[in-house]
Amino acid sequence: MASSIVFYDIPSTLPINAWSPNTWKTRYALNFKGLSYRTEWIEYPDIEALCKKIGAPHTRNKPDGRPHYTLPVIHDLSTGSDLLLTSISLTHPSRRNCRRDAALALTPAIGLFVIPSVPRILNPASLEYFHITRGALFGKKLDEVIPTGDAYGPAWQKLKDSFGKIDSWIRANGEESTYIMGDTICYADLFIAAYVLWFKLVLPEKWDEAKTWHEGRWEKLLENTAKYEAVL
């Protein structure tokens, strides 16, 4: 019997297909909770029409005031409703009590390197949309965003320092701690893993260095969360 939960995600040219950190946060959570679901792939230009069709709310407003629709979206066909992660937690009891930690310190530094490189893994249907919207975000063409020359070293160090901050949160529980809460994985770890996996998938050549940082913590994190990477 097909699952009543439909998870909408953005496709790519990668073998695993899934790549977006925002949707990986939710996919990790679904798999972590052991929920049955199926994925439907939606290219960027089709997201707004999908959300309007199923009644999913917009996430914010565009500068001109129009609603802006984004993924992930989880739709429960049995109720006809759009689900948020919080409602999933209420409807489907978790195997563990997890809390989401503020990992946002990582996103600006990692985005500076990864976002401009995302077009290399997108399907043609999403390329123009991504270039226009992300170019507007940075105020320049994406190929002008990645630090070069004298700007590269400081930007790369800032990224390493951002990972280092998260490493310090984990070490606060003890030098041998594996996760944010010590030895028990929680949603904060999955949240962080989503961005680490994004980095690895989009910039494998940079990942070769980053995976060695902080005694290989980030490679170990992905090894520990690999069991939750199923794309159903």
Automatic annotation (TrEMBL):
InterPro entries for the chain: Glutathione-S-Trfase_C_sf, GST_UstS-like_C
Domain Glutathione S-transferase UstS-like C-terminal: 108-228
Source taxon at top rank: Eukaryota
Pfam families in the cross-refs: GST_C_7
Protein name: Glutathione S-transferase UstS-like C-terminal domain-containing protein
